[in-house]
Amino acid sequence: MKLLFILDPLDELKAYKDTSVAMMRGLTARGHRVFALGPADVYWQDGATRARTVALALHDDAHDWYTATAPKERALAEFAAVVMRKDPPFDMEYVYATYLLETAEREGARVFNRPAAVRDHNEKLGILEFPQFVAPTLVTREPDAVHAFIDEQREKFGVEPICAVLPIAPSLYYELKARERDPHRRPGRARRDEALCAHIVRVWRENREGYGVRKVWKQLTREGQVVARCTVARLMRRLGLAGVVRGRKFTVTTIPDPAAARPLDLATRQFTAVRPTSCGSPI
Questions:
Q1: pLDDT per residue over 92-101, tens digit each?
Q2: CA dihedral of residues 59, 64, 70, 76 (deg, nearest 10)
Q3: What is the DSSP string of 16-47?
Q4: pLDDT, tens digit, 9 for 90 and up, residues 186-224
Q5: Facing residues of 146 across strands?
């Protein structure tokens, strides 16, 4: 049988420990032919998913472990099996390779593992399918939620062991807790932003929630607040505030058909000029 392996660059594989190399050696020892390619070598053309593949001869040497032939274009459906063994990172090249492999499946190729399963079953979130077996877990991108999670679990696991797993230094966590106890330890910009946010909200509400960045900034300047316009814009974005915008606010969902029948002009107006226009006189 002919078997195709989608791999990382061959020169980067460590033959003494890589399981893909062990699989290919075992297949070769049983008389099967082994081919290899990278994700970028897969393409679709003329109704078939194809790839630039190389045939491999496997050796027992840990360094000089293979001999490859010249690349040759072949359809993926020609192989008895296509084995996806590409390691992370899970980038867009990887995603599009799974799309092409799904197309190859519809053309009759046997792909292991199934491209949709490889793409959709995230290795970091897969454990969420078995919540009864996981330790206390939080999946979020909000820093405040992470800090609250540490507060909740610190008595049981300790701060340092939790921070060793999370992308946060224990010193940062302790500093944030100290700022909660003593707000004056916060940076000057944070304290100033908090005071400015109160003034921005007040000005925005006093003017019927219609002022945008420029008018809010002008009003604050008239009141004696020394603040840059870009700072007002940044804080209004954070607060989710915006002024009234001129123009159409609704979305047009219908497009007129120029060929559709329309009512006749009941006034029977004539729009044809009786003579050329002259300077200063109407038609």
A1: 888 899 999 9
A2: 60
A3: TT-HHHHHHHHHHHTT-EEEEE-GGGEEEETT
A4: 999 999 999 999 999 999 999 999 999 999 999 999 999
A5: none
- What is 59-104 written as a DSSP string? -S-SSS-EEE---EEEEGGGSSEEEE-PPSP--HHHHHHHHHHHHH
Q: What digits encode the pLDDT tens for the residues 31-44?
A: 999 999 998 999 99
Domain positions in the chain: 2-120, 132-185, 188-239
Tokens of 169: 């230094």
Q: What is the pTM of this model?
A: 0.56
CATH of domain 2-120: 3.40.50.20
d(CA 117, CA 242): 43
53 forms beta bridges with 72
In what helix (H) or strand (E) does residue 195 lie, and over which residues does it extend? helix 188-206
CA distances from 231 to 139, 193, 196, 213, 224 (A): 32, 9, 9, 10, 15
Which whole number is the average pLDDT over 132-150?
89
